[in-house]
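Q: How would the structure tokens look for this protein?
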Amino acid sequence: MDQARILLPTSGRLLIASLFLWSGVRKLGHPAAVIGMIGHTLPFPTLGLAISLACELVAATLLLLGWRTRTMAVVLALFTLATALAFHNDFGDRDALTNFMKNLAITGGLLQIVAFGGGALSLDGRLGPEKARA
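A: Here is the predicted structure in token form.
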């Protein structure tokens, strides 16, 4: 059981972070298309891309490493919830509804990280609570 308490938080962070990292890397490969898609829904699509990349690449990397884990999980949870509300809100469309529900589930997983932290195999766990908050 002790080994599971060490490995499961790390595995969870890896799996959730990989989703965001993959999405961010894909966006880097097609920025004009992403800006066009964002522009159909939100004003300032270039800013939207920048925010998206910051969340998906920077916050997800820090979540993976377990540095300021709870803060990064909050950032990603808010980003994921905002994405669901802005882009997946046509509930008459089965695909949009599926993506909306998927985003809610991811948000739920991120809230678990907020509640329980990054675990022992994280930079936060290695630094201790005082240094992790600094």
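The helical segments are 2-29, 31-39, 45-65, 69-87, 94-116, 123-127, 129-133.

The chain is about 80% helix and 0% strand.

Upvote if useful.
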